[in-house]
Amino acid sequence: MPGSMSPAPEHRRRRERRGSFHVRAGAAGKRAPPSMALVYCIGVVSLLASAGRNLAPKGQLCLGSFWCISLTPVARKLQRVNYELHTLPVDAKAVTDGDTITVYVNMSNHPESGDVPQEVHKAAIERTKARAAKNYQRADALQKIILGAGYRQIPNTRDEQVLAKKYRIRLRGIDAPESLMPYGKEAKEELMRLLQGKTLKISIYDSDRYGRLVGDVDCNGVSVQEHMLKKGLAWHYTAYDHRMELSKWENQARASRTGLWALPDPEKPWDWRKKKRIGTV
């Protein structure tokens, strides 16, 4: 009928379906606009991050008050114990100052026992025989041979003469006042009082530029570093040690104004040594 719309032939309908499919596929290939939920989430996270930056302690990044990460860089790897020393009873003269001691270790149960020179072993055996025979002149001569090699024969807890090696130990993580500084004498005397006549367990971590071994010292279950810090007779040496417990013990002494913290402005020993090096002390 003229003016009427006849149904489209089948082949035309197939072309139209193919065309509409390509249009839909092309639209799908374009980046779709973000949903409102995603936009909302991004906005909330941004607001929380902004609030966290304003409220967070220094060195932390926070999202609000519930999630924080530390931004403080790790200064060094966690140190591990290299070996342990078990000392003979400590002599009062062994304490150099409030953070350095000299100890002797029985070589019979020491990791380096196999390194003792044969002539030292022989001199130690002969000296024991000379002392038993009360030939003290001979014993003293043999002791000089032993001392010259860096060893010594001293009595153990059963008053038996044992071959021992001397070690200088720097207490790890603390710095006590130098002997000429305020509380330097008190620090040395307190360490001497604590250690005299005791056997120690020392966990060795490292050695310093002066040839001393650096370690944690245990005296009958008491941490010597903890004792000195709580007594207000040492600083936490933060330049070389970052353990939080040492800072905690120092802060306890500060809060109670114990020991050197009774002073209005105690000088740090590393600052004092620096002044001494440049001749201003």
Task: Summarize it.
The chain is an alpha+beta fold and 281 residues long. The chain is 39% helix and 21% strand. The longest helix has 20 residues, at 10-29.
Structure commentary:
- By secondary structure, the protein is an alpha+beta fold.
- It has eight helices and twelve strands.
- The protein has helices at 10-29, 36-55, 118-132, 136-148, 184-195, 224-230, 244-256, 269-277; strands spanning 60-63, 67-70, 83-86, 95-97, 100-106, 151-155, 161-171, 174-175, 200-207, 213-219, 222-223, 235-236.
- The strands form three sheets. Strands 3, 4, 5, 6, 7, 9, 10 and 11 form an eight-stranded mixed beta sheet that branches.
- Helix 3 runs antiparallel to helix 4.
- It starts with 9 loop residues before the first helix and ends with a helix.
- Residues 1-5, 55-59 and 63-76 have low confidence and may be disordered.
- It holds the Pfam family SNase.
- Residues 11-21 have a biased composition (Basic residues).
- This is TNase-like domain-containing protein.
- Residues 1-27 are annotated as: Disordered.
